């Protein structure tokens, strides 16, 4: 509670100190530095000027800026401040004439010289006008900066809400897509080998726990993601034939860091979805490593086009497209994705490098 009270009082304290410094330098220290005793009317005028400038500052800050300037009435704002400056100088001129300030100041500075009326010195009026517009300019600058900060805060909050909503939507798309393919694989296994199908179900249940609990978080441990990937690959291996050459470089243990859950799965899933054939020889290479703060995933697979009428073919591209979008949202400027699918070897290659620092 004391800290909150101090924070609330800080703006008021800053205003008091700021005006005290401004008033002391402009209206107090400068006249006193001449070491001339000035009449009471002069000090009353100084006090009136100070009060007028303070009132102008806050009237401009609390009314003209939000009600006129921020309503795009720029010319009206300038016109009102122009009139305010003229009124300010006009009041000072009337005060000087009313109290005969020229004669009083002459007697204060040169009492031995007889007073002779002279034309008004416009230098002091111009100086007063500039001080008036300095007060207006400072309040306008502060108001504009606060408005910019407020707008920027709202913009960032809206952007964050949009990102969170979009990430939730993308994860909702990726997860059903993953389970659709995995259940399709298990269904195929039940007609071939029941024991393998049971093993696949056990691995899938472990993966489901990961998906249910870890994807609720924005970040998970890289070691958990690594185990999840290994389970997925083991599950995929159950359906491979001897026509597929599988080259894996997945570490048993990996240095921990935080990463978005299920971010790597679509790239690996893509290898098995499009990189195997029941009639032709094919190869898949998957490499995962952590180099200092960088996570590097490299995959290669033979390109086979899925039949569009099959469930896998119709779902093609959903997981990959959404994952690239997730990368853009979660790691802007901190990842590099190279995709090579036009080469003489008919290989689809992906290299993903993410800065996890």
Helix/strand order, N-terminal first: HHHHHHEHEEHEEHHEE
Number of domains: 2
β-sheet strand percentage: 5-15%
- Specify Rg, calculated over alpha carbons: 38 Å
Estimated structural class: alpha+beta
- Major sheet: 5 strands, mixed
Distance between the termini: 36 Å
Helix content: 55-70%
CATH class of the largest domain: Alpha Beta
CATH topology of the largest domain: Heat Shock Protein 90
The CATH homologous superfamily of the largest domain is termed Histidine kinase-like ATPase, C-terminal domain
Compute the average pLDDT: 80
Sum up the overall morphology in one term.
Answer: rod-shaped
GO molecular function, one term: phosphorelay sensor kinase activity
Protein name: Histidine kinase
Organism: Aquiflexum gelatinilyticum
Keywords: Kinase, Membrane, Transferase, Transmembrane, Transmembrane helix
Please explain how this structure is put together:
This protein is α+β, with helices and mostly antiparallel strands and 357 residues long. It folds into two domains: 2-155, no CATH class; 160-355, Heat Shock Protein 90, CATH 3.30.565. The protein has ten helices and seven strands. The strands form two sheets. Strands 2-4-5-7-6 form a five-stranded mixed beta sheet, covered by helices on one side. It has a two-stranded antiparallel ribbon with strand order 1-3. A hairpin with a 6-residue loop joins strand 6 (335-340) and strand 7. Helix 2 runs parallel beside helix 5 (122-190), helix 3 (74-99) runs antiparallel to helix 5 and helix 7 packs parallel to helix 8. The chain is rod-shaped. GO terms for molecular function: phosphorelay sensor kinase activity.
């Amino acid at each position: 509670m004391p800290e909150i009270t101090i924070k609330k009082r800080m703006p008021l304290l800053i205003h008091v100190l700021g005006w005290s410094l401004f008033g002391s330098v402009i209206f107090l220290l400068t006249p006193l530095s001449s070491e001339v005793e000035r009449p009471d009317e002069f000090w009353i005028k100084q006090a009136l000027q100070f009060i007028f400038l303070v009132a102008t500052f806050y009237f401009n800050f609390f009314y003209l800026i939000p009600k006129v300037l921020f309503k795009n009435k720029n010319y009206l704002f300038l016109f009102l401040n122009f009139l305010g400056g003229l009124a300010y100088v006009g009041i000072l001129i009337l005060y000087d004439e009313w109290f005969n300030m020229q004669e009083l100041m002459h007697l204060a500075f040169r009492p031995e010289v007889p007073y002779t009326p002279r034309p008004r010195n416009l230098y002091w009026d111009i100086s007063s006008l500039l001080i008036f517009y300095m007060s207006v300019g400072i309040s306008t600058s502060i108001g504009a900066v606060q408005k910019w900060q407020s707008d920027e805060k709202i913009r960032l909050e809206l952007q964050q809400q949009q990102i969170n909503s979009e990430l939730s939507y993308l994860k909702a798309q990726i997860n059903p897509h993953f389970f659709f393919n995995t259940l399709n694989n298990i269904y195929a296994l039940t007609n071939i080998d029941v024991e393998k199908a049971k093993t696949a179900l056990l691995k899938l249940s472990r993966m489901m726990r990961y998906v249910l609990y870890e994807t609720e978080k924005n970040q998970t441990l890289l070691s958990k993601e690594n185990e999840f990937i290994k389970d997925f690959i083991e599950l995929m291996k159950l359906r491979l034939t001897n026509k597929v050459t599988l080259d894996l470089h997945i570490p048993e243990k990996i240095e921990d860091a935080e990463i978005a859950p299920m971010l790597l799965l679509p790239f690996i899933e893509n290898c098995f979805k499009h990189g195997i054939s029941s009639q032709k020889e094919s190869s898949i290479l998957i490499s995962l490593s952590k180099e200092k703060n960088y996570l590097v995933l490299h995959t290669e697979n033979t390109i086979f086009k899925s039949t569009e009428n099959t469930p896998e073919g119709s779902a093609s591209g959903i997981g990959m497209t959404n994952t690239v979008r997730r990368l853009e949202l979660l790691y802007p400027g901190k990842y590099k994705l190279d995709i090579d699918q036009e080469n003489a070897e008919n290989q689809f290659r992906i290299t993903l490098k993410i800065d996890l620092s």
